[in-house]
Amino acid sequence: MKKYLTLFKLSFQQELAYPINFVMWRIRNVIQIFLIFFLWDTVFSDPNKIAFGYDKAKILTYVFGLVVVRPIVLSAKSFEIAGEISRGELSNYLLKPLSYFKFWFTRDIASKVLNILFAFFEITVLYLILRPPFFFQIQPIYLLAFVMSLVFAIVLYSLLIFLFSMFTFWNLEQAWGFAFLLLLFTDFLGGGIIPLDVLSAPIQKVINVLPFPYLLFMPLQIYLGKLSFAQTGVSLVTSGVWILILFIVVNLVWKKGIKTYKAEGK
Amino acid sequence: MSRINYYFKIWLKLTKASFLSVLSQRLGFFIFFFGKIFRFGFLYLFIIFLLKGTKNLAGYSLDETLFFFLTFYFIDTFAQCLFREVYRFRPQVVSGSFDLILSKPFSALFKSLATGADVIDFAFLPVIVFSLITVGLRLHPSLGEAALWFVLATNGFLIATAFHIFVLGLGILTLEIDHTIMIYRDITSLGKFPIDIYKQPLKGILLFVLPVGVMFSIPAKGLIGILNVQTVIVSLLLGFVFMFLSLRFWKYSLKHYTSASS
After folding, report:
1. Can you tell me the distance from the alpha carbon of B17 to that of B38, in angstroms, rounded to the nearest whole number?
2. What's the pTM?
3. Residue B7 Cα, gap to closest chain A Cα (Å)
4. Could you tell me if residue A132 is left (phi over 0), alpha (psi between -120 and 50 degrees) or otherwise beta?
């Protein structure tokens, strides 16, 4: 445990080693939010309008919720795994007395902590500039379920990164390609660009079978109280089942992948 | 004329090499091509569902909103297709291999900007052009309005070129930022929808300071037929000024290149 704590501290320092890069990365996140915010602000220009099951306060809370939930769930350094496999740098870790996945999970958590700190600063600034109406969830049961869904989402996303990164074992040249696919699916099928309930019911049904909506969309739906207690339970259970499935698959793929690994590039 | 021929031959040769390099990795080509189609299709579908639910966006109908979106995609993808080399520029400065480009008997700007065309975007362009023409025809533009769209879209492409040159210049002046081109992409992505959705002062900034509105929204408005002469003149003027400033900035950056890593 102590070594992972040290690793956490080191990762935190490393994140801040290139401050301009980090700030630029955060600015990019804010710019992306502007598009979504003003789009929905225009759609709900009539403050009494209700569309797609949202009123103005709820849809803008969804947008601002993304500013908070994205860094909690999606900030991750473990995207570097694919590059390490393709460059043969994985060998260095195999010789060390630590778990490769715990190593990257620790680094992910350090990245999340730093990004969350900045996200709270950004949301304050954005709030002061844009002055949107907010929806505050006050029911403890929904708040608890929201926190649980976030914890599940963090684990789920790490497992997805591990899985997509490990495809590189069989396609060394495509390290970035698989990451690109994961980022795309997370943004679009996870509700990172638009709330998925804008889409038609059949499309939503298909998307809900996948793990991606449980990363951003479902936690925010729970916070907004748009799911009943039963639906909230189903959402958490589905997320848990996906974690279990991915945990098994990641272990299997790792065992197979490591047998094909030739440390090419080293 | 012979100078244009000379550069065209270089471009053709390097583009061929760039295409072959990407096509040699078939899986990679299909992953990225699928990704682009998926992203485009998803957003297209989203606009349809959104406008079905709300009837209009900032006063624009479904087809008009789609046309704004497609104009953005067309100019943006065309620029990405031609200027992919910009994404590979910073590592060359960091490693010092930019020195080798400077010593070649042709423009370093031309080499750094336009010689690594992207075959994936090239393959994606017909999909956008087909959608653009289909939706554009549904708006029943006159020949004059279609011509105006073409002129203003060319102007938008000129501003996109200027932005890419600014990114190259920044890449020389500061080695600390490696997201510059992605920040450009994020800013221009604000032009996916009509500029009218933004409020002041952001709307003003997007029209005159970082002219995303001039790049993408103004051409679409030209085809819809809701532009006045002053806006057209100011837009073309902005395109010219941006291009001029970007070229000056490039020259300024080159003078400050230190070749530190070589």
Report:
1. 27
2. 0.89
3. 32
4. beta
